[in-house]
Amino acid sequence: MDHYIPDNQNAHIDTREFENDLNVLFQSLKGVSLEDADLWPVVYENIISKISGNIPEPNDDDLVCRYFTPTKFLWFAHQNTIYFGSAGGFEDKCDSDIPEDYNNCVKKVLYERDLISLVWDDYLDRMRSRWLVSCWTNLDNHHDDYLLWHRYAGNELGVGVVIRYGELRDLLKSEFSREKDIKQFKSGIVRYSHPLCLPPFNKRHIFRNEKEVRFVCEANLLASMSIDVSSLKRKFSLRFSPDAPMAHVESICAVWEKMGGGSEYHISGN
């Protein structure tokens, strides 16, 4: 039985113009070795120029949530920092990458010239790894996705930390402006469908229920970093799974208040 279900997410990108650009580029080498030509930045920027540059943002008053396991929540409550990890370390190796059709087109042109794509693959990995990312969920519904609690918070004993998007964005933007090793800071909504956003604001369609919002900085020399958000601590509120025992809710709230947090909390779906 054929399980193919056609829709616009299955449509391939027309890469004929791009393939022609590649052929012209390779023909221009005229005896120069591929290593000496250093074509990969040119190829990569050509692809980026064909992807939508628009990165939509939530409204400033929209709520965003970061789901923590109990252990990670305690680290956050004590350290008052937000961790930014490299996109190169994400489990999904397609995350923050260029569209597959363009990648296949590059490999096809290389194959036709008896060239190995390992150097190109390495370049793509480096382009992904330069992005340091903090991932949050856009709370646009009273009910959370059940899988978010079990995937990112461990289970019903996890904790969500909630704040308004504009407040967090403005603080992070200000903090990153003081970091000499940071080239740029961006934030916005991840897109899971065509047209894709610029990396690292693109993700495969199978992750669409995450409704992810990302805060991103470019840092070629850093593998990770943490940003102090203690000035916002009283503005964060807590969010709990509807399956969380009340004793768990009360215990976490007591710890949070003792460590300087506010008293506001919400149980998803209640």
Question: What about the largest sheet?
Answer: 9 strands, mixed
In total, the number of domains comes to 1
Q: What is the terminal separation in angstroms?
A: 43 Å
SS field, number of helical segments:
9
Beta-strand content bin: 15-25%
Q: Which regions contain 5 or more consecutive residues with pLDDT less than 50? A: none
**Assembly state:** single chain
Mean pLDDT, all residues: 90
The SS-based structural class is alpha+beta
**What level of helicity do the residues show?**
25-40%
Radius of gyration: 22 Å
* Outline type: elongated
Descriptive overview:
The chain is α+β, with helices and mostly antiparallel strands. The protein has one domain. The protein contains nine helices and nine strands. It has helices at residues 16-27, 34-37, 40-49, 70-79, 100-112, 118-129, 146-152, 165-176, 246-258; strands at 63-68, 81-86, 131-139, 159-164, 184-189, 212-218, 224-228, 237-240, 265-267. Strands 1, 2, 3, 4, 5, 6, 7, 8 and 9 form a nine-stranded mixed sheet that branches. α1 (16-27) runs parallel beside α5 (100-112). The longest helix is centred in the middle third of the chain and has 13 residues, at 100-112. The two termini are 43 Å apart. The relative contact order is 0.18.
